[in-house]
Amino acid sequence: MSSPESAHRWIRLIEPACTSCMICARECPSWCISIASHTQPVESLPAGARDRTLNVLDHFAIDWSRCMYCGICVEECPYDALEWAGEPTQAASTSDALVEEMVQPPS
Amino acid sequence: MIEVAPKDWITAVNGLRVDGFEYFDWLGCVDEIGRRECFRIVLVVRNLAEGAEPRMVSCPLPRTDPRIDSVRGVYAGAAWHEREAAELFGVEFMGGERRRLLLNSEFEGTPLRKDEVLAARTGMDWPGAKEPGETEPSPSRRRMVPPGVPDPAVWGDRAAMQPGADPAEVAESAVGGRVRRRRT
Questions:
Q1: Fewest CB atoms within 10 A around its CB: which of A8, A61, A73, B43?
Q2: Nearest residue on chain B to A32, judged by CA atoms?
Q3: DSSP string, chain A
Q4: pTM more than 0.90
Q5: Complex prediction ipTM
Q6: How far is A3 from chain B (nearest CA, A)?
Q7: Which CATH number does the domain B2-94 belong to among 2.40.30.110, 2.10.10.20, 3.40.930.10, 3.30.460.80?
């Protein structure tokens, strides 16, 4: 039997591993993941190196009212930035409150 | 896989049973749009006693009027599978059970046909429309569309004067992924 750690209860974002590649949002069959990001130039490049940009994650949210806990996002993430977590998602009295902001949008 | 014409369907399936393939495994339907203008009914039976390879027999049906004889008189267990294929693909099994199996009675449509469109989603913003590094989706050449929602140029945005897209075009554009540049 599956342990609580691997049970389909809650999906956690491991923010440092996320590259904002959008694969999870595109693969999600219930359209419950929303992501916003921006690009910024990489600083401290060696002298003479070509300019590079990096995606910076601004906003990552999962709408638990739509999520069906299928785990396709966890499977598809090429950077292992999503994982199953043991705690069940919090109950809420409105559907808006079921949108969990894992990375806050810029205010 | 043996392919038979619709008129020979019952004879072929009955022949398998007579040959000792008495165990009905499954019956399914495949929408072959884009390859061939047909639905293919596939039936798999086994011979448990001799442990032989399962036999697979199929029958292509025209998309315009997909009808085939029911084989529930040969394998009673095929009735459920036929009911499922009937409601999900809109195939008529003549002499078969007509009650629905999975869909509720008010549901209209044939969900597993590849040209079936998820109409309610065409009006929603797809979260995957953004490219990496975007805060808002931008119109770009490499636009993505979600599965089940066709390219608006094929389905939805066409002017009323134009003829509707044919089913193969709708099916091709609803598989998701990058929107391919359309030949006009």
A1: A8
A2: B127
A3: ---TTTSTTEEEE-GGG-----HHHHH-TT--EEEEEEEEEPPSPPTTPPP-EEEEEEEEEEETTT-----HHHHH-TT--EEEESSPPPP-SSSGGGEEEEEPPP-
A4: no
A5: 0.77
A6: 31
A7: 3.30.460.80
